[in-house]
Design a protein that fits this description.
Elements (H helix, E strand, L loop, with lengths): L1 H19 L1 H18 L4 H13 L3 H9 L1
Helix pairs in contact: 3-4
């Protein structure tokens, strides 16, 4: 039982860290995406909208895949 509690506390700590540093995380992601946006033929606004949509729906896998492409 103690292990489950410890795991739950660690998840809460990660969530708090992400909430505090969400702006920094977005900035870091944008810095990673900028070179890709410069080479892309798709309008940057459309890419940004799709990325924000993925984050808003908590589709983090899709957002990571978008960063990798």
């Amino acid at each position: 039982m103690g292990g489950k509690t410890f795991f739950a506390i660690k998840i809460m700590e990660v969530q708090m860290y992400l909430r505090k540093n969400f702006g920094f995380l977005i900035l870091l992601i944008l810095i990673v995406l900028l070179p890709h946006l410069a080479q892309s033929t798709t309008p940057p606004e459309q890419i940004a909208e799709k990325f924000v949509e993925l984050l808003a729906t908590k589709n983090y896998d899709g957002a990571y895949q978008m960063m990798d492409s």
